[in-house]
Amino acid sequence: MAEQTLTPRNKKMLESSGPVGQNATVGSRVFDAFNYLFLTLIAFTTIVPFIYIIGASFATEYEIATRPMFFIPQDVTLNAYQFIFSSNKILQGFGNSVFITACGTAINLFFTVTMAYALSKTRLRGRNFFLNMVIFSMFFSGGMIPGYIVVANILSLKNTYWSVLLPGAISAYNMMIVKNFFQGIPQELEESAAIDGCTDIGVLLRIVLPLSLPVLATFGLFYAVGHWNAYFGAMIYMTGAKEKWPLQVLLRELIIMSNGSAGDLNNMDPDFVKPPEQSIKMAVIVVSTVPIMCVYPFLQKYFVKGVMVGALKG
Residue 58: how many CB atoms within 10 A of its CB? Predict the structure, then answer.
């Protein structure tokens, strides 16, 4: 086969088509430099406040009041963290948060995947009715008081873990995105598995779920962060079971104690001097944020891909 040659016109178009090695034009280089600068500024505005919070959690009240911005405190003190961990309930609350996050995320993914897979099939009878009901729930809700009556009085779930796990068992928005992703999987793969004798559940477990790891990891992370940061449900449904309180509710109580407006200091060290209010708030943010942030590096590969796929398939 004869070697193909480029005409001068095609060669000029190829050189100006984009930043390919040394053939990048001045305009493309300026555009790339602007993008790098813009993304760097966004990363800077995101990271700097958190670094300040970490530094302020080790600082004194005087330093926080007199220095508007710093990363490394001049006088390092652990009073805020000593105050937080002086109660033996903190570890118990941490265990409760881990349990609620793990079980809640598993329940969320189970109901999201099963409902999304069923609604992704056009042969499902009453599919449009169920889709309309899901869409209706995205715009209207019963409200807090009817929800409390259902959970506490009708279902009798008050002071149990189920009171914070079941009310948010599925997100309609997340389910719709997962459904759209399932619809994008080639139908020929499922048909070939059905010819080999797989049932619908077998197709879901052996074909669909392995191909959906990025989406499942992404929404699993969303669900996990939501459960980890949730406190209002436990605060209204577990009033008589404080031993089941998650970490967020206990940290809220510690902030109230540090302000001196409410709470009971009997569980604290009587010889301990009350730390500054601002450093307590900073330390609470660090304690409640760092554990869930440690999950991101393990799911980063799937998380980035899943966000892009979910956006394109939507």
Answer: 20
